Every structure is written in structure tokens, then in C-alpha cells.
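Milestone M4 deliverable, item 7.
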Amino acid sequence: MRWRPIAGIVLRQFYLFRGSPVRVIPIFAWVGIDIVLWGFITRYLNSVGGGRVDFVPQLLGAVLFWDFLTRIMQGVTVAFLEDVWSRNFLNIFATPLSITEYLTGLVITGIATSAVGLAVMLLLATLVFGLEFVSLGLLLAQFVMVLLLFGIVLGILSSAMVLRWGPTAEWLTWPIPALLAPFAAVFYPVATLPGWMRTVASVLPPSYVFEALRSHLAGRAVSSGALLWITVLTFVYLLASGAVFTRVYRHVVRSGLLARYSAESSG
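Output delivered:
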């Protein structure tokens, strides 16, 4: 894997942001609105709950972590879609650029843009609503790593969907976080779910993150074995998503779909 082509992919995205400052606004605007909205909701719940339960870390913390995962996924997907919208595939893949280098460039771009959103969320949640992340200690790094990697997985799989079925498939990618949220048990324990949904939740790394978050806030010990399991599982998903994208790419090349790729194509 060569770093020069990867830097070229990242640099292209930087030029896009520099050439169109409007693209920068969605990076932090929507996450800021989410944190403000849920921050006031948690304050209201605290007031009507009589202070028996502190909803700020329970709900606002969950919203922040889930938004972070969503922004990672969308950061990777949007970087890929820039080539879709500009019909730039033939130009990119006519160069000696490997799939690994291309995906690495997309991932770095997604992480960079999502870092801005994460910084805004942390500032608002900490300074305005008093959400303290220091108490999580090393757990915070583990949570962020698992959600970061799983967000990358979703971004790569979403990109593979668009590559296989055409630009119109992008509308199938945006609802993915909303579809996964009930199974990931973002706002409630996994035990609340019916049996078949618990089975799905057991193979979703974010569900373990939010269960561990609630356990920590409740003063219970967090299972180190569970954290190790979800870390290994997330890396397996990451490798699998890369393999899926590679397989899809080879299919569209062999079938000629790549050459015919256009905004009107549906795959």
C-alpha cells in the first residue's frame, strides 16, 4: 500500500471543502442541533423526575456516541459519493490505484470530517449541559474506537451498495443508522427487546458499547471480556466490509457496469 495515492484521495476532498465552504457547514451544524435539542430534553426530564435519575449522561451521552458513529459512516459514504456525483470513477480507476488505497483515503477523509463534528458535540455537551466524559476513563477510548471502526464498516458497505446498484441506491444508505438504532439499544437496555431483536443486537458491536455505558453510569462493573469480544468482532466486520467492496468492484469491472456508470444508471 502506497501513501502517495492515499494522500491524493484525501487532498482531493480537502480541495472540495476549500472550494465550497458550504460543504463545511453540515459537518458540525446538524450534530450541534442534535446535542442542543437532546440537551434540553434531558434537562426537562431531570426537572420532572425530581432529580432521582440524571438523564444527562444516560441520554445525552448515548446521543453523542450514536451521532459520532453516524457521522463516521456518512463521512466515508459522502467522500465516495463525491466521485459518483462528479462521474469521476473512470478517471480514478484508470490510474494504478488499488482498492485498499482508495478505501484508506475515504476512511481518512471520513475520520477527519467526523473529528470536527465530535469536537463540536463534546464542547456543547460539556460546556452547556455539564456532561463529563472524564469519569469514563479508559472506557471512553474503547467506546470511541469500537464506534469509529463500526462506522467505517457501515460507510464501506454503503459505498459498496451504491457501487453495485448505481447512484439511485444512495437513498438506501441514509436510513441505515436509523434502522440499526433499535437493535443497538442506544437509549434502553438490550433486555427490553424481544428475543429475535436481542439476537440481532448480540452481533452488533454498538449494543455492547451502550450496555457498558449504562452499566458504568449505574456503578456496575463493565465486563472486560465483553469489550475484548466486541473489539475483535468489529475488526472482523472491518475486514469483511473491505472484502465485500473489493468483490463488488471486481464485479462491476467484469460486467462493464463501471464503464456505464452515470447518474441515470441503476445498476
